[in-house]
Amino acid sequence: MPLIRVELFDYRMSEETSAALIEKLTDALGEATHPGLKEHTWVIVEGHNPKNWGLAGKPWPVDQMPPAPT
After folding, report:
1. Between 47 and 54, whose confidence is greater?
2. What whole-number distance in Å separates Cα of residue 21 and Cα of residue 6?
3. How many Cβ atoms from other residues are within 10 Å of residue 29's Cβ?
4. CB-CB contact of 29 with 23 (8 Å)
5. Strand 42-48 to strand 3-9: parallel, antiparallel, or no bridges (unpaired)?
6. Could you state, in order of their start, the residue ranges of all structural domains in the chain?
7. What is the mean pLDDT of the chain?
8. Residue 47 phi, psi dihedral angles, 5° rounding
9. What is the mean pLDDT of residues 37-41?
């Protein structure tokens, strides 16, 4: 059972984004490995508050956040 896990800043998440990631990542895994895996592939898409992310042992600097989608 393949499992693909995606974690993004929560403001980048929407139902449409999640559905597109699930479909396209499942297709990509099948193309890269074996088409029969598609029916057995799980994809977990999670959004997290950027304030809960860190880099190099330090909390992510909020003033350096990438811009939110418009």
Report:
1. 47
2. 9
3. 18
4. no
5. parallel
6. 3-47
7. 89
8. -110, 135
9. 95
Give the H or E element holding residue 43: strand 42-48
Q: Which candidate, 68, 67, 17, places its Cα nearest to that of 46?
A: 17
Q: Is residue 25 within 8 Å of residue 5, measured between CB atoms?
A: no
Going by DSSP bridges, is the β-strand pair 3-9/54-55 parallel, antiparallel, or unpaired? unpaired
Which amino acid, residue 49?
N
Residues 43/67, Cβ–Cβ less than 8 Å: no
pLDDT band per the 50, 70, 90 thresholds, residue 49:
confident
Q: What is the DSSP string of 23-35?
A: HHHHHHHHHHS-G
pLDDT at residue 54 greater than cutoff 90: no
pLDDT of residue 67: 63
